[in-house]
């Protein structure tokens, strides 16, 4: 390689270095900002995770402390005083509603359950369970049509508590004096492949009590009339 070519290469290398340093001086702050954003974002994520874990732990401790109270009314009051969201908040209100039912504060129990059912931050299964329990514990102050409306969505195919909701709808027909419709619903429940033994037995008992045809009980169930009557 000649001296002139070597000189040109050295000059070119220096020019590239100068250009690189120029770019760094001009745009280096962007790289610094990106690094800060990544580090800051990671730190914020970890901080929020720690906060959520601490809040969940604190809520759990408060729930356990409330459950140790012997008096139903005092326990319900303690549970309602707990400030929790999401799943913990839903569990707290479900537990409080159970104690309110025990103390015959039905209206307050339904209100607590409806709050869970309407809470979009709560897991879907808790919301459906709360809606089901609200319909089940509602007293005469809530009309049969209103309770039917509360159960309608829960009784649809694919719903988690479908069969329990259908059972409650059948019981509402009994309450309304529509025996024939109630029997049809109980027969459908007894023949449902997803029905548990306990639920099927309750359906059989209700059909017999309502004067239903025994043949309807054994149809597609594989049971004998004697087994049904037992």
**Strand portion:** under 5%
Number of strands: 0
- Mean pLDDT over the full residue set: 79
- The helix content, as a percent range, equals over 70%
**What structural category arises from helix and sheet content?**
mainly alpha
Total number of helices: 11
Distance between the termini: 108 Å
Radius of gyration from CA coordinates? 33 Å
Low-confidence stretches: none
Shape: elongated
Largest sheet: none
Q: SSE string, helix = H, strand = E?
A: HHHHHHHHHHH
Structural notes for this entry:
With 230 residues, the protein is mainly α. It has helices at 3-67, 72-80, 86-102, 106-117, 124-137, 144-152, 162-176, 179-190, 197-209, 214-218, 225-229. Helix 5 runs antiparallel to helix 6 (144-152). The protein is elongated.
Features:
0% strand; 77% helix; 230 residues; mainly alpha
